[in-house]
Amino acid sequence: MAYSSTSVPWPSLFLIGFSSLAYEVLLIRVFSILHWHHFAAMAIGLALLGHGASGAFIAVFRQWLLKRFHAVFIFNLFAFVLLAPVSFYITQIVQFNTLEMVWDIGQWWRLLIIEVVLMLPFFFAASAIGLSICFFQRRLSLIYGTELLGAGIGAITLILLLYSLSLINILAVIIFLGGMAGVLALVTGYPRTRRSMLMASISLMIVVVLCLSSTQWPKLEVAHYKALNHALQLPKTRIVYERSTPLGLITVLSSPTVALRMASGTSLNFQGEIPEQLGLFIDGESVGGIIKYAGDAESIEFLDASTGALPYQLVSEQSDVLIVGLGAGESLLQASIHKPGLVDVIEPNAQLITVFTDRFKVFSGVDYLMPYTHFNRADIRGWLKREARQYNLIQLQSLEGMNASVLSLREQHHFTKEALENYWQALSQDGVLSVTLWMDIPPRAAPRVVSMLYDMLSTHLNPALHIAVIRSWQTVTIVLSKSVLSDSDNQKIRAFCELYRFDLVYYPGIRPEEVNRFNQLQSPYYYQIISGLLDDDRRDSILEHYAFDLSPTLDDRPFFYHFLKVNHLADLMTLWRRGGEALLPQGYLILWVTLIQALLLSLLLIIFPLYWLKHRQVCDDSSKEFSPREQWRSAFYFMLIGLAFLMVELVMVERFTLFLSHPAITGATIIGSFLVFSGLGSLCSHRISRNYVLGFFLSETRFPWLIFACCVGYIIILPWVFETYSDVTIGIRVMISFSILSPLAFMMGMPFPMGLRYVYRHKGEAYLPWVWGINGCASVVSVNLATLLAVHFGFTIVLLLGAVLYLLSAFVLKTGPEKLRGQTRLKTTPY
Amino acid sequence: MASFKLYQCWFFCGLFLIGLLTFFSHGAEAEPWLEMRKEMIRDIEYNVTETAHYIGKGRLNSEVMASMGNTPRHEFVPDNLRKLAYANRPLPIGYQQTISQPYIVALMTNLLESDRDDVVLEVGTGSGYQAAILAPLVKKIFTIEIIEPLASAAKKRLKRLGYSNVEVKNADGFYGWPEQAPFDRIIVTAAGGQIPPPLLKQLSNGGRMVIPVGSPFTVQYLLLIEKDHAGEITTRHILPVRFVPLTRRH
Fold first, then answer.
1. What residue of B is the nearest CA neighbor of A581?
2. Whole-model pTM?
3. Is the interface score ipTM higher than 0.90?
4. Which of A98, A658, B50, B142 could disulfide-pair with A578, CB 3.0 to 4.6 Å?
5. What is the pLDDT of residues B5-58, one digit of tens each?
6. Interchain contact B193–A (C-beta under 8 A)
7. Is B194 close to A266, i.e. CB distance below 8 A?
8. Which residues fall within 8 angstroms of residue A453, CB to CB, at 6 or more apart?
């Protein structure tokens, strides 16, 4: 055997941890571009399934693999390097179409093929680590910790790279680093013979050539049903700008022969011209058109012929306006028509601001707007807390995607009851909040906003006197006035609707004959539901009996577009092939499908090796064979900590998004700190057990109580921390986040290596891959399960559940045979 | 001489046999199309029943269904997709465009409620199938296609199949066909995010326009626009439609 037990290939382990996690985060971005956001959970699941599968594989072929450790280890590293790009492209060759899943069973098979193909690189990366743990059993904590450290730094680096490199170039970087892991293993593994150096040199050359050829690799192809692809079908259309950011791939299109005309819900009475536009897309979905503007208000008159212009009828000129989300700049131009005093535009994606104010500065005519416009790169919630300004008008538009069914799992922190409270507090005494949404039938989104407004205001005033709702043939606008809508206001609303032939849905004192006149629905659904929701007597009945869930979304459950009532799912399914597919929440259903797939695969990967091990003597010393009870206990322990880790991590990412105000920074900070500190926890776990005091508190059966206490403590103190430190700079907030999470993440890094050591100590290394696999499988299930639970019960419950699972893991250990428990702490000392 | 007569006899017998074979082979080719078209009509009727609560009726106009039953859809799809021509689904026709699902074609035609004297504007000729369905039901059809190769192919095809009351133009349908306006009926077969104001202007008083609106390839609503005799416009949402997205396998 070439390796001695002391020559652990640390750099290779660090780099493979780095590369595989970076590849996982890259896949999340790629799936968002090619398909939709809800495939992110699938990407994470695939990585973890790779871990699970590798455990099963090693468990079955352990002896054969360990005899050839060096060759297999290097093979695994290079297999990752080769399969990472190959799998990446195979998924594009397989014509998977998420929208066809509803009626085409073939799409399920295609999804399965993609999952299996993409799992392979992770399988090989995890096999390299799993094998190392088995081979260098005495250093398993250090190996696991090194891998986690690499993964943590990989996550942070990748998110930074997303700002500067294209996705293909990032893939090349990942391949290079993965290749370097292999090259370093070749250099450090064997004695430095001419042969090993030659192999290392050739490998390095191949990897470098592979990476340098990345400019020739095929480009990512956005799925055919996405808006970008549809727009590209227009003759002579071309992409004039493309930029990758962690918040999305920004694409700007120019169509010189067929003018792009994006004018959502414009009045049919509008007969004027629509100015030239450039199409703006994020992750292949249309955001709107950047309108050519040369300071001439008449040229953008069409913006005033949309329902979104209603609030300008209720506020005076020189008003201070806050626009939430820049989009393609339509709201900003609309504001400019009404001579505002000041316009604050809040947009978290700095690159989008750059597109508008720099790259297409002349086209967008931003100079004409600059005297009164301030572009702010921030998240709206954080901005409002920090600035504490008052506005006459706050405008929100959610017109980014028309297919709400695929948005059902997207967290919308700016559309929660708490967010609406923030907006309400930022309104001046005569201020107006305006929300514009796509019109959906049956009505869901607009009634939910009204339901939230009612919930927010009903304790101290009568919401029915402050709200007005109108709609066109395509959009709905809800206005909430801080003061009671006066007769004069109502008159203005009526006149505006009459002028543009928009339909009144609700205003204080509306009569039934005023509704559903110009843009007719089969029945005045909007009026019936919204007026009912604002009526104290009918509200509860509507909420209970309506086929869709209209209850307010909260920060704890921020899934604004999730309207499914589980008890009505059967009714919805009957509409499957009768024009009702659009009503099914696709993201949610896909989550169930991936959960079921993960469960089945996990069971297969756990039970198959178990069955294998049962019929073979796996240990030289038969006294070290697991009894059935011990097998179940070990399996249960690793399953519990696998489920718990990701539940807690997922909730923390969600919680800190509000505090850090930026999804990319949150991802880098929270995932990075979790992995890095868990890695440190793992590295230190064997040292802690040597220390008598620390070892006492952080023994296997005691520290889960600390994790539990930590989680419960976070539920209590995090809101206070977020409130208190919301006004400090982002750098300090990142430091605070790191500091808060470090103890929890540190402790969460320990149960796994402690468990591994426990198994190794009592049963030898034979069972290590099996429990490694179980942990991976449980993590796969956890990703999907945690999201599902959050949709139904909220993130707090998920966090509590994670904490309880840690407690249970302690209980599982505690109920073990007395002699084993007694030895736990003492026996850990040699490592 | 006798042998010459014998040759003549053989020659005519041969001709007769060839004629007979040709006749039956034609019949053999025509028969499956007819059967498939009948099957398609049954599919459409089934879809109509299934969506009756949206469209407010359990069956479509018999003239529309007759036109659907008589029009050779297989002539409007690419040769390699002919066997799928009568499947109740859209099919690619090149240039990333589709021939609409038969049910949607029938429904949109029905929504127009056209008369024999009507002049119709179609935006989005595609392969010319929708125009062919409308041809026996109205006086004249003006159809616009933005993609030049599709426009010229449709023009030739419609001429070859004898649709004499259809005129095809290669242009941007957004601006309509002002020279031939006003139109009694307008049918827009390409989905878009906006209802083009020039088309509304070119719709005669008392006219009807059918247009799918919404995000292409995902959820769209079929919108019926009516202009009353005073020129006032109202819209009516008919039903959500979902066009099957194209994939390269076709």
1. B242
2. 0.82
3. no
4. B50
5. 666 666 666 666 665 555 544 444 456 788 888 999 998 998 888 777 777 778
6. yes
7. yes
8. A420, A463, A466, A467, A478, A480
